[in-house]
Amino acid sequence: MPRVLRDIVVAALVDEPDLEIVGGQGGTLRQTVASSQADFVIAGADYDFAEVARVLDERPRLRVLAVAGHGREAFLYELRPTRTPLGEVSPRAIVEAIRSARIATS
Q: How many Cα atoms are found within 13 Å in the side-chain-facing hemisphere of 81?
């Protein structure tokens, strides 16, 4: 994910008291997930669908928000990979996508 886009995502989440931001170490999606043990991963949309599917098979409750490099669209991946278009990306849309995914797994 481009640094500018990453900064926008962090800025959208930093003031949310019920969300914790944990930086990934880069590398493959699988490595990022393993190193953080996160419930929700925000990544650039450059991962291929097969890689996302493998990670979700290993971590069934994980959600992956993939944000396109141009920052205008995002997709939410869930188990049995479901790609949910979220429309225009805004700080509020990112926060709401995370909260709705978290509620669905509770």
A: 16
Contacts of 37 (CB under 8 A, 6+ apart): none
Q: pLDDT tens digits, residue range 18-55?
A: 887 877 666 788 887 887 778 888 887 777 788 888 88
Question: Which stretches of 1-106 are assigned E, i.e. beta strand?
Answer: 40-44, 63-67, 73-78, 82-88
Neighbours of 49 (CB within 10 A): 12
Instruction: Report pLDDT digits (tens) over 60-80.
Output: 888 888 888 777 888 888 876
Number of Cβ within 10 Å of residue 7's Cβ equals 11
Distance CA 25, CA 53 (A): 20
Which class would CATH give 3-105?
alpha beta
Q: What is the pTM of this model?
A: 0.66
